[in-house]
Amino acid sequence: MFVLDLILKKRNGMKLSREEIEYFVRGYTDGDIEDYQAAAFLMAVYFQGMDADETLYLTEAMLHSGDIVDLSEIPGIKTDKHSTGGVGDKTTLIVAPVVASCGVPVAKMSGRGLGHTGGTIDKLESIPGFQTSLTREQLIRNVKEIGLAVAGQTGNLAPADKKIYALRDVTGTVENISLIAASIMSKKLASGSDAIVLDVKVGSGAFMKSMDDAGKLAKMMVDISRGAGKKAVAVLTRMDNPLGMNIGNALEVAEAVDILKGHGPEDLREVCIELAANMLMLGGKGTLDSCRELAARSIADGSAFRKLIEMVERQGGDPSVLEDTRRLPAAPVKAEYKAEKAGYIIQMNAEKFGMASVALGAGRKTIADKIDPSAGIVLLKKYGDIVEKGEPIAVLHTSEKETMPDALKILEGSVITGEKSPPEVPIILGRIE
Ligand code: URA
Questions:
Q1: What's the gap in Å between 334 CA and the centre of ligand 1?
Q2: Atom 5, ligand 1: which residue's CA is nearest?
Q3: pLDDT digits (tens, 9 = 90+) for 43-57
Q4: Is the CB of residue 113 below 6 angstroms from any atom belonging to ligand 1?
Q5: Same CATH topology for 79-156+165-323 and 330-418?
Q6: Ligand 1 centroid, distance to 134 Cα (angstroms)
Q7: Residues 347-367: pLDDT tens digits?
Q8: Hey, which residues are catalytic here?
Q9: Shortest-distance atom of ligand 1 to CA 111
C-alpha cells in the first residue's frame, strides 16, 4: 500500500477500507508517513468527507494506536466530558470540580487549543507550577483520593490523535464531522471513563456552524459510544457569542474562579450547570432536575471551588493565584476594540474573537508556537447590549505589542449592530441521549 494511493482515492471521493485507514493511522503515528502527505490526506477527507463506516474505522484505529486506560480500580461511575471546541469555553474548569465535589469521580483527559478555539490544558498551564502530564498511576491515585484529575493526553493515550490533532490545527482541516468525531471518541474511549457527556457547540464560534451539522456530529459520537458500551449524552449548546466575557488562558481561569465563587456571567453558568447535571445524572445521582440543583448547591456552598483548589494543589499548581486571580499572568500591553456603529449588538462573530485571541498569542499558528498565558480578550459588551459609536466593546491583552494591529484588524466587522433590541435566545439548544 502507498499513502499516495490513499490520498488520490479519497481526493476522488472514494470510500476507504478499514485496512487503508489503519495503514494511514499507523504510518503517520510511527513517523513513516510525512507531515506533508498526512496534511494532503486530511485535506482530501475534509473536502470529500467519510461515511459512518470510515469514521468508525478511523476512531478504532486511533483508539488502538496507544494504551487503553483501565480505571476499574477507582470505585464509582467515572464520568468524563468533552467539548467540540468553542471560544471562551472554560466549562471544564468549572464542571469537573462541581461534579467531583458532588461525589462522582472525574478522570478527565483534556486537549490543547485547536484552530480558533481554546483548550483546557493550555488554560490550566497558566496556573504557575500546574502539571498537566500525569502518569496513569498518578491520575488513578488522584481520582481515588480526591475524586478529580485533569490531565493532558497521558503518555501513550491515542497518540495518533495527538499527532493528527496538532497537524489539523495548523492545516485548516479541523471542521470535518468525521475527523472531529474520531478525534474526540478515540480519546474518550481510550481514557477509561464509564460515562461521557459531549458538549456539541453550534454557531459562528463553533466548528459546526449549523444545527443540522452539529446534530449529525452529536448523533455520530453518541452512536460510537453506545457501540463501545459506554453511556453518553450530547448536549447541543449555542456558540454564536463567546461563552462568558473572557477569552484566553489565564483570563479564562480567572472567570472560571468567578463562577465557582458564585459570580460570573449567566450564559457560562447555565451551560456549566447543564453539563454538570448531565454528568451527575449519568453518575447515578438522580434525575436531571435534581442534579441541576445539586450542581448549583455545590457552587453556592463553596465545595466546588474547594475541589478546584485541591486539584490544583495535587497537580503542583500554586493555589494562591485562584484565591486572588490578580496574581495570574497578566498582559503588559492592552488596547480597546471600539464599536464601529451605534445600536444594539445583534450579532457577534465568535470565530473572529477566537482568531484575534490566537493572533494575540493565546493559541498557536504553527505546531512549534508557544502560548502567551496572559494573552486574550475581555468583552465589555455582549449580544443584546446597546453601544455608542466608538464605545469600547472589548479589551485586547498581549505580551507582544506587534500582535495588536493584526488582532484589531481581524475584529473589524465582527460585531453587528441594529436599531432594535434582538430577541433573547436560548443557550441550551438540544440533547441527544
Ligand atoms: N476536540 C477534539 O478533541 N478534537 C477535535 O477534532 C475537535 C475538538
A1: 30
A2: 180
A3: 999 999 999 999 999
A4: no
A5: no
A6: 21
A7: 999 999 999 999 999 998 877
A8: 82, 161, 168, 183, 187
A9: 3
Q: Is 114 in the pocket of ligand 1 (CB under 6 A)?
A: yes
For residue 285, give the C-alpha cell.
445521582
> How would you label 188-210 residue by residue, b for 16+ Cβ within 10 Å and e otherwise?
bbbbbbbbbbbbbbbbbbbbbbe
Residues whose CB is less than 8 angstroms from the CB of residue 290 and which lie 6 or more positions away in sequence, other chains included: none
- At residue 309 the predicted structure's pLDDT band, cuts being 50, 70 and 90, is very high
User: How open is the CA angle 352-357-363, to the nearest 5 degrees?
Assistant: 115
The CATH superfamily of 330-418 is Pyrimidine nucleoside phosphorylase-like, C-terminal domain (3.90.1170.30)
Domain 79-156+165-323, architecture per CATH: 3-Layer(aba) Sandwich (3.40)
Cell representation of residue 229: 458500551
Whole-angstrom Cα distance, residue 267 to residue 246? 12
Ligand 1 mean position to 162 CA, how many Å? 10
Name beta bridge partners: 428: 237
In CATH terms, the fold of domain 3-49 is 1.20.970
Mean pLDDT throughout 34-41?
97
Ligand 1 mean position to 168 CA, how many Å? 10
pLDDT, tens digit, for every residue of 365-415? 877 788 999 999 999 999 999 999 999 999 999 999 999 999 999 999 999
pTM of the model as a whole: 0.92
Instruction: Give the number of the atom of ligand 1 that is nearest the alpha carbon of residue 184.
Output: 3
**Helices and strands counted in the chain (H then E):** 17, 13
Whether the predicted pLDDT of 121 surpasses 90? yes
- Closest Cα to atom 1 of ligand 1: 84
CB of 85 sitting under 6 A from ligand 1: yes
The whole-angstrom separation of Cα 228 and Cα 209 is: 28
Query: What are the domain boundaries of the chain?
Result: 3-49, 79-156+165-323, 330-418
414 CB under 6 A from ligand 1?
Answer: no
Q: What pLDDT score was predicted for residue 72? A: 92
Strands 231-238 and 428-432: antiparallel
> What integer pLDDT is reported at residue 115 of this predicted model?
75
